[in-house]
Amino acid sequence: MTNVLFVCTGNTCRSPMAEAILKSKALPGVEVKSAGVFAADGSDASAHTKKVLEEQGIPFAHKSSGMTDALVDWATYILTMTSGHKGTVLAMFPGAAGKTYTLKEFAGQDGAGDIIDPYGGPVEIYRSTFEDMTESIARILNRFKKEKE
Questions:
Q1: pLDDT digits over 78-95, tens only?
Q2: Which active-site residues does the annotation give?
Q3: Which of 17, 32, 100, 112 is deepest in the core (most CB within 10 A)?
Q4: CA 84, CA 75: separation in Å to the nearest integer?
Q5: What is the CATH number of the domain that holds 141?
Q6: Residue 34: its H or E element
Q7: Which residue range(s) make up the domain with 22?
Q8: Which pTM does this prediction carry?
Q9: How many domains does the chain divide into?
Q10: Mind listing the pLDDT tens digit for each residue in 93-136?
């Protein structure tokens, strides 16, 4: 089993969107969760996150959660939206070293930068973030398939 944990700041925009995208691929042997480095437990996904996922036909129910030792232990891979998130995860959870990457780093897009934070912006920014993440997740699908071979 491969357990993927997506991480952003508040677990209401980027990481739940990434979680929904990867879950929608229904990969056998891959489980997906998301969390935030500074998330309040129990918040809904942002309205624009839900709208963009609905537009793409991706069903998703979400309640935010903060990072915990249990999630770190559960995860095979911890994929963060930014290099700042990666640094925060490693500072808070030293045991996450060796399995924590930015999403673009893990996808082999070194130098491609961070996934931009759409929080508070118009729905068009959320759509752009969705497309950026979809590209990166398509690349990690290939990586997971190779790992299964």
A1: 999 999 999 999 999 999
A2: 8, 14, 117
A3: 17
A4: 19
A5: 3.40.50.2300
A6: strand 30-36
A7: 2-148
A8: 0.97
A9: 1
A10: 999 999 999 999 999 997 878 999 999 999 999 999 999 999 99
